Amino acid sequence: MNASGNGFGSVESEFIQKHHRHEPGENQCSSALVKHIRAPVHLVWSLVRRFDQPQKYKPFISRCVVQGNLEIGSLREVDVKSGLPATTSTERLELLDDDEHILSIRIVGGDHRLKNYSSIISLHPEIIDGRPGTLVIESFVVDVPEGNTKDETCYFVEALIKCNLKSLADVSERLAVQDRTEPVDRI
C-alpha cells in the first residue's frame, strides 16, 4: 500500500486522479486496475482505440458492429461469447483522444445487469527492462444490481477487466516481438 492506501504507486495514482474521475452514487461501485505491458504505447493504442473491433483483444466478444461513422457518440452492438450472463451489449463511444491515449465508453443497452456502466482506459509510456512499455489503467463505475453487494459487483467487473487487460498484454507483446524496438539506451 502507498500513502493514499489504494495499493497504487505515485505514478499510477497521479494518472488515476487526472484521467479516471468517477463519482459513484450510493448504489454504485467503482474501481481502477493497472497493467504494465511490454510493448510501446503506439502499438497498444492501435488495439485499444479500435472501438469498432474490441474483439481483437477482448476474449469475451465474438462480434461487433458499429452504426455510422466512428466518432464520439457512435454506438456499437457487441455479441458476447457464451459462458457469461449476457449475449449482447450496446455501447456508446464517449471519448477517443489519440493525443492523450484515452478511450471512454458507456453501456447504454443489452441483456445484462451492468446498468449505468461507464469505463475509461488510458495508456501511458513507460520503460520496462530498458525497452518502451505501456502503463494501462482501466477504471469503471456501475450500478450494483439488486440482490448483489458492492463487493460482488466490483469483483465480477474487475475479473472481466483483468481478463481483457491480460489479453491486451498478450496480443500487444506478441506484436511487439514481431516489430522489435531497440532498447531505449541505444537510441
Keywords:
187 residues, alpha+beta, seven-stranded antiparallel sheet, 3 helices, 7 strands, globular
Quick one: overall form? globular
Low-confidence stretches: 1-5
- Identify the strand order in the major beta sheet: 1-7-6-5-4-3-2
Number of strands: 7
Rg, please? 17 Å
With helices defined by DSSP (H or I, 4 residues minimum), what is the helix count? 3
Biggest sheet overview: 7 strands, antiparallel
Mean pLDDT: 88
Distance between the termini: 35 Å
Pattern of helices and strands: HEHEEEEEEH
* Alpha-beta content class: alpha+beta
The proportion of strand residues reads: 35-45%
Percentage of residues assigned to helices? 25-40%
Secondary-structure blueprint:
Layout: H1 10-19, E1 28-37, H2 41-48, E2 61-67, E3 75-80, E4 88-97, E5 102-110, E6 118-128, E7 131-143, H3 150-178
Antiparallel strand pairs: 1-7, 2-3, 3-4, 4-5, 5-6, 6-7
Helix pairs in contact: 2-3
Brief synopsis:
The chain is α+β, with helices and mostly antiparallel strands and 187 residues long. Helix content is 25%, strand content 35%. The chain contains 3 helices and 7 strands.
